[in-house]
Design goal:
- With 307 residues, the chain is mainly alpha-helical.
- It has a domain of 116 residues: Serine Threonine Protein Phosphatase 5, Tetratricopeptide repeat (Alpha Horseshoe), CATH 1.25.40.10.
- It is built from 16 helices and no strands.
- The longest helix has 17 residues.
- The relative contact order is 0.08.
């Protein structure tokens, strides 16, 4: 998992399966984490301090905790959620929200405990199933994650994110055909989601449906024109389809968008070698090595005369 956007890579050439949304906590709290608004939130915390001091109810502590969560004071939020739960031990929302804060602190096992409790108190708690699935994915329990996303879908079947996240977990288990089905369902519910096209294209490429992969990655690029990984993956699909000339512009665009993208130099070098541009290929292999690509080291001595 290199690069900023989201999961795998190498030559017969496998794809870099990045995912933009797969490991995002689906908490209503996160929507407000823009630091430009933190000053206003801090004023609200001062107001919340007054209410907690004069009427220390579980709800008052929970509301102040939510505000602390918004400014990424996760430890402070957890302290307030603890207080809320001491006052109301059956407060499902507080367990869920505390688990979100624990997730942010990478305390995944404790987060699981709190998601479990929230679900035991509220069995149809869709967001808790979604988030618990993400937490299980962090812990590489992909089968458990799939079960949680499936439960989320049973509660509400029209959420594209649950299908998308389940598709990611299936990819992690190398179950690409079923992952494609989930990404397809996500796209039926939201045809403007670039990430679902991207992941479906990546899975199609791995099962050697290169034409389908190219189509999906082209749709990704139309929705997200500056997505370097999409150009890179489309270039790899074209390479595997033996469209070497067509792949070169995609790798070039990848490099323009992300100049340190060593895989793009390596793959473009292979394309240039296939199309008779030996000097260009060697220049790309050298640049790939300078940027840390190990595969280029294996071919440069064989294909290039180094001074």
């Amino acid at each position: 998992m290199s690069h900023t956007k989201p999961h795998k890579q190498t030559l017969k050439m496998r794809l870099i399966l990045y995912s933009l949304l797969s490991l995002t906590i689906i908490s209503s709290l996160k929507a407000q984490q823009d630091t430009s608004g933190w000053r206003l939130v801090r004023y609200k915390i001062q107001d919340a301090d007054f209410f907690v001091a004069h009427n220390p109810t579980a709800e008052a502590y929970r509301k102040r905790a939510d505000l602390k969560y918004q400014i990424q004071d996760y430890n402070g939020a957890i302290e307030d959620y603890n207080q809320a739960l001491q006052l109301n031990p059956e407060y499902a929302w507080a367990y869920f929200s505390r688990a979100c804060a624990e997730d942010e602190l990478k305390d995944y096992y404790q987060a699981l405990v709190d998601y479990n409790t929230a679900i035991s108190l509220k069995p149809a708690y869709k967001q808790a199933y979604d988030n618990r699935g993400i937490t299980k994915s962090h812990l590489k329990d992909y089968q458990g994650a799939i079960e949680d996303y499936t439960k989320s879908i049973e509660v509400y079947a029209k959420d594209p994110t649950a299908y998308y996240n389940r598709g990611i977990a299936k990819e992690k288990m190398n179950n690409y055909k079923d992952a494609i089905d989930d990404f397809t369902k996500a796209l039926q519910l939201d045809s403007t989601n670039a990430e679902s096209y991207f992941e479906r294209g990546a899975s199609k490429a791995i099962i050697e449906d290169y034409i389908g992969a190219i189509e999906d990655l082209t749709k990704t690029i139309k929705l997200y024109p500056d997505y370097a990984d999409a150009y890179n993956n489309r270039g790899i699909a074209k390479y595997n389809f033996k469209d070497y000339k067509g792949a070169i512009p995609d790798f070039t665009k990848t490099i323009q968008l992300s100049p340190a993208y060593h895989n793009a130099y390596y793959y473009r070098g292979n394309c240039k070698d296939k199309t008779g541009d030996s000097d260009g290929a060697c220049a790309d292999f050298i640049k790939a090595i300078q940027l840390g690509n190990q595969d280029a080291k294996k071919v440069i001595n064989k294909n290039c005369k180094l001074k």
